[in-house]
Fold Solute carrier family 15 member 2.
Amino acid sequence: MPEERAIEELDMNTFPTNESKETLFALVSPKEELPRPSSPPKKTAWKICGSNYPLSIAFIVVNEFCERFSYYGMKAVLTLYFLYFLHWSEDTSTSVYHAFSSLCYFTPLLGAVMADSWLGKFRTILYLSLVYVLGHVIKSLGAVPVVGGHLMHTVLSMVGLFLIALGTGGIKPCVAAFGGDQFEEEHAKERSRFFSVFYLAINAGSLISVFVTPMLRGDVQCFGGDCYALAFGVPGMLMVLALVVFALGSKMYKKPPPEGNIVVEVSKCIWFAISNRLKNRSSEIPKREHWLDWAEEKYPKQLILEVKALTRVLFLYIPLPMFWALLDQQGSRWTLQATRMNGNMGFFVFQPDQIQVLNPLLVLIFIPMFDLGIYPLVKMCGINLTSIRKMATGMILASLAFAIAATVEIKINELSPHTPGGKEVYLRILNLADDEVKVSLKNYHNNSVFPEPIKPFQKTTDHSKMLLTTESQSFHFQLQYHNRSVTSEHMLEEKNRYSLVIRGDQSGVSSILVKGMATSTANGMAAVRFINTLDKDVNLTLSRDVSLSVGEDYGISDYKTLERGKYHHVQCRTEDKDFSLDLGLLDFGAAYVIAITNSSDQGLQAWKTEDISPNQMSIAWQLPQYIMITAAEVMFSVTGLEFSYAQAPLSMKSVLQAAWLLTVAIGNIIVLIVAQTSALVQWAEFILFSCLLLIVCLIFSIMGYFYIPIKPEDAYNLEDTMPSHIKENARNLVTKKTKL
C-alpha cells in the first residue's frame, strides 16, 4: 500500500514530540478508527555479552584495523621502493608518492556516490575491497625482481597503486558510517563509544604496520637485497584478512538501502545557480540577494538555504590544503632525510622508514593530553581558544616543525662527507706493504699533498683534495720504500674519490688506483668492498643472499651493500681452507674497504678502513619535528572535523566530509608541483613550505575573524529537516486525507 510505504519511509525520530507522530498517523490512516499500523518485526540482533553493542561491529572494527595496517604498512616503504628499487630520483619519488596520496583522497567521492546512489554501503565496501586486494597482489608482483624488467616493474607498480587508491579511497566514507548504522537510535551513547574504538583501531593498525613493515623490508633479505616483495605482500595479506572478516559478518549486519546522494544534489544545485546567473547576466531580471538564489527556478528554497550555509564553511576550506602539504611529507621528504641519519638509538636501531611510527604513537598520547590537560588549562588562564584559533595554532606549529626540519637538514649537510665538485678529486693512500712509504706527486703544483710517510695499515678516512686542470688528468706518483723509489702513472677524473692501494712484495712496492664511492650509501645501508692480499681466490658469504668472490694477489671486489649491523663471523673459503673473518660493525651510510691479510703471528684476518664515514647525525634529532607536527595535526585536524560537523546543516554532513578529504588531496598536489618545479636544495624547500604556511595561516585567521559561526539553537524546522521525497509523500497523503 502507498500509505504504508510512506509511513515506513518516515524517520519518526525527526519529530519533536510523540504528539506530532500521532497526528501524522491520524492524517494518513485510511479510517479514523483504525489503530496506528504496527512496525514490522525487527530482526533479532546478535549482541556482545548481552550489552547494547551489536556483535557485527566487532567484524567492522577488525576489518578497519587490518585495512589500515595494509594501507599504512604499504605506504611506509613506498618512497624507498621508488628510490632504490625502481631507481627514480628523489623528486620523482616524492612526486609519485604524493600523486598516489592525492588520488586516495579524490576517490572517496566515487565511493560515496556508489554507496548512496547505487550499491549501498555493504556492497560498496565488499566490491571495492576486492579491487583493493587485487591492487596489493599486482603491487607485490611489481616488487619481485625476477618478474620482468624495469618497465614491467614500473607498470605493475602504477597499476597496483591505482587500484589500491580506488579501493582505500572508495571504502573510506563507507566503513565508519556503516558501523554507525548497526546501532539502534536509542543507543547513541554506545554508538559514540564505537567511534572511539574505531578511531583506536585506525591508529593501532597504523602504529603497528609502520613499525613492522620496514623490518620486513630491511631485516629480511630476498633476491639479493631488501625484500620489498614481502614488505608489500604482508600488508596485502592483511587486506585479504580484512575482506574475509568483513564478509563473515554479512548475516549480522543491518544494510540500509541507498537513499540518494546529497553530494550530487548539492553539486547540481550550485552548477544550475552559476549557469542560470551567467545565462541571465544581461537580461532585465532583477538582481538577487545571493548568487545561489539563481537556483530557485529548479530547486527548493530549503536546499538553497542549506547550500548557502555549506558554502560559508567551504570558503574557510580554501587555505587548508597548504597544511596537508606539510603534514603528508612525513612519508616522503622526512623519510628521505632519515636515510642520511644514524638510526642507532642505543636501546633500538631504527630503519629510516620506521621513524614514522612516532606520528601515530604521539597522536594516541596527544589527543587525551590536549583534551584533558592543555585545553582546560588554557581555559583556566582566561583564553578563549575557539576552533578557528586552534586550527591557526596548528598551522603555526606545523610551520615551526618544518623550520626545525630545515635546521636538521643543514646540520646533516655539514656533517656529511663532502662530494668532489668540478675539477676536484679526493685521494687517500692505503699502505698494505710491510713498512712505511713516502708518496709524492712529480707533476703537481703542490708536491706536499702527502707530507708524512704512510705507515703500514694506517687507518684513516682523510682524503686529500686535488685540483685538476681538465676534467681528467694523468699524475705520476713517486713511491719511496726503504731505499728504493718507484714511479707509477694513474689517470684521475673529476668528481670522484680514489684510493691509491700500495702493495709490497719481495721486489719492492707497486700501486693500484681504485675508484671509491662519491657519497654516503643510499637508504642508510652500509657498503663494503674487499682487497685480497692472499695468493688464492677467496669466496665470502656476507649474508644469506649476499656472497662474492675476490681474486688472488690483490684482487679487488665491487661494493656490496648490507644492512647496518655487526658481522663477527663472515664465512670465507679458499680452495683448501675454510675460515671466518670478523668485520665488526658496518654502520649507517658508511663505505668500507677491507683487506684480507695473512699475518704470521695472528693468521688470516680482516683489516678494515672507512672509505666514507658513517652518518653522523642521530635520527633522534627528528623527534622535535615529529612532536611539533603531531601536535599541529591534533589541533588542526581533530578540531577542523569537529568545527565542520558543527557548522554544517544536518543534511550536509557528508558533503563537508567529502570536501574535507578533497583539501587533503589538493595538499598532496601542491607537494607534487613543488617537487617537480622547485630547484631548491632540501633545506631551502623546507623553509619555503614553512613560510608559505605562515602566510596561509595569516589569511585563514583574517577569514576566521569575519566568520560568524552558526549557533546550536539555529535549527531548522521539522519539515525542513525531512528528506524531500519523504516530505512529498507525506504532503500528498495529508492532502488526500483532508479532502476526504
Notes: The two ends are 18 Å apart (CA to CA). The chain has 20 helices and 20 strands. The longest helix spans residues 150-181.
